[in-house]
Write a structure and sequence with these properties.
Blueprint lengths: L2 H13 L8 H35 L11 H14 L4 H25 L5 H26 L5 H10 L7 H20 L1 H7 L3 H6 L4 H23 L5 H13 L3 H25 L7 H19 L6
Helix pairs in contact: 2-7, 2-10, 2-11, 2-12, 3-4, 3-5, 3-6, 3-10, 4-5, 4-10, 7-10, 11-12, 11-13
Length: 307
Amino acid sequence: MSLADALRAVWNRLSGEIPPAETTLDTVLFFVRLPRVAAAMLVGGALAAAGAAYQGLFRNPLVSPDILGVSAGAGLGAVLGIFLSLPVLGIQLLAFVIGLGTVGLVLLVAASVRGREPVLVLVLAGVVVGALAGSVISLLKVLADPYDQLPAITFWLLGSLAAIKLEDLTTTVPVAALGLVPLALLRWRINVLSLGDEEARALGINAARLRMVVIAAATLMTASVVAIAGIIGWVGLIMPHMARMLVGPNFDRLLPAAIMLGAGYLLLVDTLARTIAAVETPIGILTAFVGAPVFLWLLARSRHGWA
């Protein structure tokens, strides 16, 4: 197949003009490999971008995209959808909605606490609400059918790109892009916010309002990809550290570097998940298996203890 034929075939697929005669290569390329490669890059890039935003926002290198409970909430939504025997689209929608709702609950709890450090209150509220969502997930796993629902719940919670289709990407890409745009437009303000609220106010920046915008954008990106891929940890924690080592802490350069590293890393891990064993390994296991020693290496390599 020439390059022109391949590009023409891609256009036909995206525009819906599918020739009646399909070859095996055509089916494998457009229905199996292309959606999975694109999904790996989308999920990895979105999680890394959200992680970079959260780490700069909270001024904490241990912060990851699920710090405010979005992953736990999305996991609860997906588990509930599987428990109720909803179709795949219903499971993804429920995961997305409850993931956003969880962060909304965290913000509501944090707003009700006065006289405390707002960043600390947000983190603690996220930990509490995330733990509550985790307990409900455990309860649903106990009540689920052990032969049908429980394996599906367990596999989803470990993260996988195996079931992603091209239709999933057409709905997820716009939502993830909607969350990325504010981060790109406000990148210099995020730089200032990383210095602290006092410095931000001195430069005329409303720190509380900017914090809410960044949280909403990063949460939107995280919830959109977790809804289709499951809970995939460590990407949003490790990749911003590596990007910071390469390009420095300036968010102008940090954001695109984190996106590219996250996309490439998850694509590599997904390739390993498909090839290292006869049965596909859940991708969340591999990201933890690879991410933990890499994080220790980054910790040891850093001059001040952090990359």
